[in-house]
Amino acid sequence: MSATLGLDHARTLDNERYRVGGRTPRTAIKPASLAEVREVLRACGRDKLCVVPWGGGARLALAEPPERLDVVLDLSGLDRVIAYEPEDLTVTAECGVTLDALRETLAARSQELPLESAHMARATLGGTLAANASGPRRLRFGAPRDRILGARFALADGTLVRSGGQVVKNVAGFALHRLICGSNGALAILLEASLKLMPAPAARVALAYGATREQLADPARWAALPRLEPAYVSVLGPPVTTVPGGQPDPGAPYAVVVGLEDDVARVAQQEHEIAVAWGAPAGRLEANAALEMSQFLMDAEDMAPCRLTFTSSHNTPGTLAPLLGESGRERFVFHALAGRLHWFPEPDAAPETARRIAGQGFTLIGARGVDIEPPVPAQESVQTLRRRIRQALDPGSILALGERWTRGS
């Protein structure tokens, strides 16, 4: 099919490697330039072929399969850092670059791009932006759409569009780049992005504690957290309570991990106050080992094929207590400060689990590996607006993931 799409066979890949939700595309193509992306999309529009953009495949393998899947567009060949301005704390890069590669580039200047994703060695900038993905530090850093300054993207007909700019002060025009963040490849294909950076913290420390259900339910235990302002607080259920650095407490079914990131004196103060309130931690990591802990927490979000994701305005570990039984066998990752809960039920129990957790003040925002509609579907007015946006950007319904986005699920 590569000849049909205007490219030679050197650009054609093994399509079995690019299954989306278990569905195999007719072909997979790896363009080497923006011009080739445009050429493929024009050909797909002409022949009414449905397209899914692919970065590192970190999320697509277990995604809901599209109704049609003709072409997967592998963008990992577009991986250049186009412009890096350390003095301005901005970077512009092609969206096929991995988050690990960006991290390494920026670390040389003691800077970081605060985007978080599971499997950062293969998760790409474009895929992370398209999912508007975040991890345990979302409260501190915001979502990806809060950090993006501008982007270049391709519409379904191959038209290349710019939105926003490369610097913070450039706010001209409509912020289409922010609309595309979170659309999961349903509206346009991200090709380049400009983002705000942050200085890397002078000190990083991760503290691991074991916890029982009763300790999680004790409000006094968490009363100091707003004042201490840790970077993150995450709670994990088995089987991932063996965190880097060891098992926090063999007699406790849950693990609580506290991340501290600030100047040296502030981190020392935070660590001292936590030790006074909770005692000595079972595990302590610092510097790069602490950074690996935050990556471990993100990778733990992907521990099982069946996953329910919830959000909540209640952002202390105690919020979990009503969801936990006596057995201590629940599998979950809860980024408390971010109000984001990932729960891993057995597929047959997923619908009832979703209802039970929703009854405790959590809102279902995603279901993977099981067909569950959100308990509160998108309002008709919202769905109508989404249909209008999709019709304007993709009138031929070429982008295969657009239907799910239009439904708001």
Compact description:
With about 400 residues, the chain is an alpha+beta fold.
Main traits of this protein?
Vanillyl-alcohol Oxidase, Chain A, domain 3; 409 residues; alpha+beta; 19 strands; 23% strand; Uridine Diphospho-n-acetylenolpyruvylglucosamine Reductase, domain 3
Task: Report on this structure.
This protein has 409 residues and is α+β, with helices and mostly antiparallel strands. The chain has two domains: 1-200 and 379-409, Uridine Diphospho-n-acetylenolpyruvylglucosamine Reductase, domain 3 (2-Layer Sandwich); 203-368, Vanillyl-alcohol Oxidase, Chain A, domain 3. The chain has helices at residues 34-47, 99-107, 125-131, 138-141, 144-147, 176-180, 213-217, 219-222, 225-228, 264-278, 288-300, 350-358, 380-393, 402-407; strands at residues 12-13, 27-29, 51-54, 71-74, 81-85, 90-94, 111-112, 148-154, 160-164, 189-196, 198-199, 203-211, 232-236, 254-262, 283-286, 307-311, 332-335, 340-343, 363-368. The strands form four sheets. The chain has an eight-stranded antiparallel sheet with strand order 15-12-14-13-17-18-16-19, sandwiched between helices. The model has no long low-confidence stretch (mean pLDDT 89).
Q: According to CATH, what is the class of the largest domain?
A: Alpha Beta
Tell me the total number of β-strands.
19
Major sheet: arrangement of strands: 15-12-14-13-17-18-16-19
Query: N-to-C terminal Cα separation, in Å?
Result: 32 Å
Give the proportion of residues in helices: 25-40%
Let me know the average pLDDT. Answer: 89
Structural class, please? alpha+beta
Main beta sheet strand tally, sense and closure = 8 strands, antiparallel
Q: How many structural units, i.e. domains?
A: 2
Molecular shape: globular
CATH fold-level name of the largest domain: Uridine Diphospho-n-acetylenolpyruvylglucosamine Reductase, domain 3
C-alpha Rg, in Å? Answer: 22 Å
- How large is the share of residues in beta strands? 15-25%
Assigned CATH architecture of the largest domain: 2-Layer Sandwich
Low-confidence stretches: none
User: Helical element count?
Assistant: 14
